[in-house]
């Protein structure tokens, strides 16, 4: 009699098979199973073989895999929860489910971040690439014809101090292309969240994007002309008598130079307990300087228009170079698209004209 026939007979003959079946599954998960009767041995091995086959072919849900991919890419449960619009507890539960399914740990905790384990690194990278392909496919289905809308994710200070004033010139040159400016501090990637191009402020270290440097930034004091009573330049040490406007800015790219950094470059003794106004946004700090509230540390891109219009002046000529730049970045697969190419070329032209 074949194994399959004997299995059917065993199931019909003895109701205890259900109990042995349960014991067999416990055994697969590392627990003790009871004794199997001789005529049940075929059932025992059949169930083991069936269960192992199912485990090898089983794939966790897309939702759970998406959670793993997001945690691996962003480095934390909270960031993944924000991106996917769920709670951190839900992300943690999905991660545990996948690890139980695969019978392996995928992440290890390093300080406050979750880092892929060495044995899971390649698989999680493949997941990231797979979900990117899914996103691309959805975009193609949603937009079967090339979209005329260009979505640009931009640093808010750069958008308000430099970009917005020039957009009408681009529209005159390319009236068929609509531009959506997404002024945000999010670290969006090109091709994510319908973003076609990003304009970032940082050190341009990414190796997976096509980058165009717009401004290599330096810092220097700027203030309203009304603060200069005599109308003449000040010695750097005289800035101690004025209200200093500070910028509290840092990111994954680094930290913006402080007044003490500039004072050292100007060979001025460090001013003890530097005080004044404190902002976390470049544009707000410069707006306060234009109002005459004090002296701010400006940069080339953000102050060129205000200096040209005499809303701001440079009280000294000491300039401190930095490692930061404003740069445009696009995905390598899309750099030749017409709407992206012409906008990047226009940005380069405008940036050169602003220097």
CATH topology of the largest domain: D-Maltodextrin-Binding Protein, domain 2
User: Which superfamily, in CATH terms, is the homologous superfamily of the largest domain?
Assistant: Periplasmic binding protein-like II
Largest sheet: 8 strands, mixed
User: Helical element count?
Assistant: 13
The total number of structural domains is: 4
Distance between the termini: 90 Å
Order of helices and strands: HHHHHHEEHEHHEEEEEEHEHEHEH
Radius of gyration: 31 Å
- Integer average pLDDT: 80
The neighbouring-strand order within the major sheet is 4-3-5-12-6-11-7-10
Uncertain ranges: 1-55
CATH class of the largest domain: Alpha Beta
By secondary-structure content and strand pairing, the structural class works out as alpha/beta
What is the strand and helix layout of this fold?
Layout: H1 3-13, H2 17-28, H3 41-57, H4 62-74, H5 77-84, H6 88-102, E1 107-110, E2 113-116, H7 118-142, E3 149-154, H8 156-163, H9 167-173, E4 178-183, E5 197-202, E6 210-222, E7 244-247, E8 250-251, E9 254-255, H10 259-265, E10 276-279, H11 282-290, E11 295-299, H12 300-308, E12 320-330, H13 338-354
Parallel strand pairs: 3-4, 3-5, 7-10, 7-11
Antiparallel strand pairs: 1-2, 5-12, 6-11, 6-12, 8-9
Helix pairs in contact: 2-3, 4-5, 4-6, 4-7, 5-6, 8-12
Annotation keywords:
12 strands, 355 residues, eight-stranded mixed β-sheet, D-Maltodextrin-Binding Protein, domain 2, disordered N terminus, 4 domains, Arc Repressor Mutant, subunit A, alpha/beta
């Amino acid at each position: 009699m074949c194994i399959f026939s004997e299995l059917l007979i065993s199931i019909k003959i003895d109701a205890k098979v259900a109990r042995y079946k349960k014991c067999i599954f416990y055994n697969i998960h590392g627990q003790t199973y009871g004794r199997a009767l001789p005529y049940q041995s075929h059932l025992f091995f059949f169930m083991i073989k069936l269960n192992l086959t199912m485990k090898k072919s089983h794939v966790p849900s897309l939702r759970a895999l998406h959670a793993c991919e997001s945690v691996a890419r962003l480095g934390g449960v909270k960031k993944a929860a924000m991106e996917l619009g769920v709670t951190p507890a839900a992300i943690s539960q999905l991660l545990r489910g996948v690890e139980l399914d695969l019978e392996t740990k995928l992440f290890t905790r390093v300080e406050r971040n979750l880092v892929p384990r060495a044995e899971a690194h390649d698989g999680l990278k493949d997941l990231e690439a797979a979900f990117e392909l899914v996103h691309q496919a959805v975009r193609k289905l949603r937009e079967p014809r090339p979209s005329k809308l260009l979505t640009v994710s931009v640093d808010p200070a750069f958008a308000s101090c430099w970009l917005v004033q020039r957009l009408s010139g681009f529209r005159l040159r390319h009236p068929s292309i609509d531009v959506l400016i997404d002024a945000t501090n999010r670290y969006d990637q090109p091709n994510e969240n319908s973003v076609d191009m990003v304009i970032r402020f940082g050190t341009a270290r990414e190796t997976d994007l096509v980058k165009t440097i717009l401004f290599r930034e330096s810092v220097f004091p700027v203030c309203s002309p009304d603060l200069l009573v005599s109308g003449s330049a000040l010695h750097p040490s005289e800035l101690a008598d004025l209200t200093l406007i500070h910028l509290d800015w840092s990111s994954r790219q680094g930290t913006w130079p402080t007044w003490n950094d500039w004072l050292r470059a100007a060979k001025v003794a460090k001013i003890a307990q530097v005080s004044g106004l404190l902002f976390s946004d470049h544009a707000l700090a410069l707006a306060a300087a234009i109002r005459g509230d004090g002296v701010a540390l400006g940069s080339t891109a953000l102050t060129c228009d205000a200096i040209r219009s005499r809303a701001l002046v440079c009280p000294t000529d000491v300039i401190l170079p930095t490692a930061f730049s404003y740069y445009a970045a696009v995905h390598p697969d899309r750099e030749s698209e017409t709407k992206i190419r012409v906008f990047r070329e226009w940005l380069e032209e405008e940036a050169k004209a602003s220097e």
